[in-house]
Amino acid sequence: MATKEALHRLIDELPDDDIAEAELLLRALQSDDPVLRAIALAPIDDEPETEEAAAVREGLAALAEGRVIDDDDLRVGDWRVRYRYDPDPGTVTVVRVLPRGRAFRD
Q: What's the whole-number mean pLDDT along residues 59-87?
């Protein structure tokens, strides 16, 4: 069984970059909140990365490089989305979402 001295040694040996994460983990373990405890004790997700995650990374890279469609209207199923892209901070602002029949009339 681990002793407090052993835990103190582990903390002392942690790289500075990991201190904040270790503190969050210890606070979650100390918490009475069952959700925080469950998250802290959850096993590491070691499943292989999905194609969707790779596509998201590729899309974010395209946004960062300015390789985007200039159109500000987007079809998503039966919905139409009007958005505004600001490349300086790299944000997309959704202006409105309407069903297909009511969208893009103006």
A: 79
